[in-house]
Amino acid sequence: xxxxxxxxxxxxxxxxxxxxxxxxxxxxxxxxxxxxxxxxxxxxxxxxxxxxxxxxxxxxxxxxxxxxxxxxxxxxxxxxxxxxxxxxxxxxxxxxxxxxxxxxxxxxxxxxx
Amino acid sequence: xxxxxxxxxxxxxxxxxxxxxxxxxxxxxxxxxxxxxxxxxxxxxxxxxxxxxxxxxxxxxxxxxxxxxxxxxxxxxxxxxxxxxxxxxxxxxxxxxxxxxxxxxxxxxxxxxx
Lengths: 113, 114
Prior knowledge:
- The complex is a heterodimer of chains A (113) and B (114).
- Chain A is mainly beta and 113 residues long.
- Helices cover 0% and strands 50% of the residues of chain A.
- Chain A has strands spanning 5-7, 10-13, 19-24, 31-37, 43-50, 53-56, 65-68, 75-79, 88-95, 103-104, 108-112.
- In chain A, the strands form 2 sheets. In chain A, strands 2, 4, 5, 6, 9, 10 and 11 form a 7-stranded mixed beta sheet that branches.
- In chain A, strand 9 and strand 10 form a beta hairpin.
- In chain B, the strands form 2 sheets. In chain B, strands 2, 4, 5, 9, 10 and 11 form a 6-stranded mixed beta sheet that branches. Chain B has a 5-stranded antiparallel beta sheet with strand order 1-3-8-7-6, with no helix packed on it.
- In chain B, strand 9 (87-95) and strand 10 (102-104) form a beta hairpin.
- Chain B has strands at residues 3-7, 10-14, 19-26, 31-38, 44-50, 56-58, 64-68, 73-78, 87-95, 102-104, 108-113.
- Chain B is globular, with a radius of gyration of 14 Å.
- Chain B contains no helices and 11 strands.
- Chain B is an all-beta fold and 114 residues long.
- The A-B interface holds A 1, 4, 6, 31, 33, 35, 41-45, 48, 55-56, 58-59, 91, 93, 95, 98-107, 109 and B 4, 32, 36, 41-46, 49, 90, 96, 98-107.
């Protein structure tokens, strides 16, 4: 799972600012998933993307959150106008195909002041 | 809808003792089942997975799990705990019909006493 890269590892934002989290999948993987982990809780699915397509965003909050996985470059999870409740660890995972094992990155820990 | 219940948010065992972490799932379709381990400030590492076939699945670090459809369980075991096993363990289920969204349990933190 060392192949999935996430940056930054730690991100501090003030309320109202924007947060951009990046995920580079493992080489050869074209499927990306984003999860959020609140303190003392398990991971909650947010969104599943393939290159240039959002496949399932049923776990994404309706407002302020968006995700993309462009043809070139990393997948981006964008949170606009952050609030304290957005403080969490955000994990990205990638897989070769839609039914294959997901490999996780080290996560980005977002703190909203 | 799918769901996962992990019984016991904290489990403590002595070094060398049996490790048993319990997981029950709910799924309306044949599930894929997983156990992941998370060390502090790190991502999740796959321990083992069940898709089809043999119901006893062996994973890394000496862990294994048995899929019991009648009990809707997928408990994780290891015969002899090691100090390095201390971590958070997550059971997860996904939908085999596509849209590989994975549902995670709340996690069980394993403590290993010397």
